[in-house]
Amino acid sequence: MIRTAGLLLLALGATACAPGGATGPAPTASALPLVTPGFPPTAAQARTRLAGLEVAWGENWQTYERVKFGNGWSDETDAPGGRNGCDTRDDVLHRDLDDVRLGDRNPCVVLSGVLHDPYTCKELPYSYRRASQIQTDHVVALGAAWRAGAWAWTPERRLAYANDLDVLLATDKQTNYDKSSKTPDTWRPPRSAYWCEYGRRWTGIKAKYGLTVSPPEKKAVEELLATCR
């Protein structure tokens, strides 16, 4: 089963690496959509939402543990892509890779495809049977979300966040390592053409989950959104 890129569901048209883009397979009747309608917000919406976020310094950074967001990927959430019978990472690969070949026996499994990495514009091949240079990035990393308010959430809300496809992108592995849990005041995508999209996504995630922004983080996101045309 082969899928090729079609309509851009994630509004990446102006900033996507040619010929890439993100599309999603048609969800089953029981599946939750792979994207939230209207996500990411437009630049104008993002500026308004950023202005409405609570400005505060991060808290409880020393208590962060990955396991507090669940033990690995989970389909058992009400976040976009949840309860569709597919692993969260497979959902991300389905959506973000081009020229995707799916398993015949298990159409959840991505056998091969190509990622046009939004952060660097590298063209990264993917094969199910080989080591990959592709990782799944939480745009607002779990550690950053923890410091911005997730420390006070219920385990169920943290699990939903960790598996929310709005929060996730397939990206270059080394770039994901470099990003780690940094906020935009200390890290931004190497490819400046993606800064607008990154600022929109960052703000959309923070607003969706009611997370705070630190003063330097807010200034950095304003600079990202200033690149929008």
Structural commentary:
The chain is an alpha+beta fold and 229 residues long. It has one domain (2-23, 32-225). Helices cover 28% and strands 13% of the residues. It contains 7 helices and 6 strands. The protein has a 4-stranded antiparallel sheet. A hairpin with a 7-residue loop joins strand 2 and strand 3 (110-116). The termini are far apart. Mean pLDDT is 89; it is low at 1-15 and 19-30.
- Per DSSP E runs of 2 or more residues, the count of β-strands stands at 6
Mean pLDDT: 89
Sheet with most strands: strand arrangement: 1-2-3-4
Total domain units: 1
Largest sheet: 4 strands, antiparallel
Portion in beta strands = 5-15%
Shape: globular
Low-confidence stretches: 1-15, 19-30
- Fraction of residues in H or I helices: 25-40%
Distance between the termini: 38 Å
Content-based structural category? alpha+beta
The DSSP helix count reads: 7
Order of helices and strands: EHHEEEEHHEHHH
Rg over CA atoms: 17 Å
What secondary-structure arrangement, pairings included, does this model have?
Layout (H helix, E strand, L loop, with lengths): L1 E2 L39 H10 L35 H9 L1 E5 L7 E7 L6 E5 L6 E5 L3 H6 L7 H8 L5 E5 H7 L15 H14 L6 H11 L4
Antiparallel strand pairs: 1-2, 2-3, 3-4, 5-6
Comma- or semicolon-separated keywords:
globular, 6 strands, 229 residues, disordered N terminus, two-stranded antiparallel ribbon, 4-stranded antiparallel beta sheet, single chain, 7 helices, alpha+beta, 13% strand
Question: What's this, in brief?
Answer:
28% of the residues lie in helices and 13% in strands.
